[in-house]
Amino acid sequence: MKIFLIVLSLAIIAVAPFFGQIDLSLKNLLDISTTDYKIFFDLRVPRVLLAFFVGAILALSGLVFQTIFRNPMSTPFTLGVASGATLFTAIGIIIGLSAFISLFAFLGAVITIIVLFMISARFKTYETSSMLLVGIALSFFYSASLMIVFFLSDLQENYEIVRFTMGSLDVVGFNEVYLVTIAGIFLFSLVKKQSYHIKLLLTSHEFAFLKGVNVKKTNYILLLSVSVAVGISVSVTGPIGFVGLIIPHILKNMMRQSADKLILPIFFYGGVFLVLCDVIARNLSTASDIPIGVVTAFIGTPFFIYLIISRKRQN
Amino acid sequence: MLKLENYSSKILSNISLYIENKNLIVLGANGAGKTTLAKVLSGVITSENIEFETPRTKFVNYIPSYLEIFDDFLNVREFLQLSHLHGAQTIDEVLHLLEIEHLKDKSCKNLSSGESQLLLIASSILHGAKYTILDEPTSNLDPKKVKMVYGVLKDENLLQNKIIITHNLHLAYKLGFDVVYIEDGKINFIGTNEQFFSSENLHKVFEGSVKKIDENIVIAL
Question: In which band, very low, low, confident or very high, does the pLDDT at A314 lie, cut at 50, 70 and 90?
Answer without folding.
Answer: low
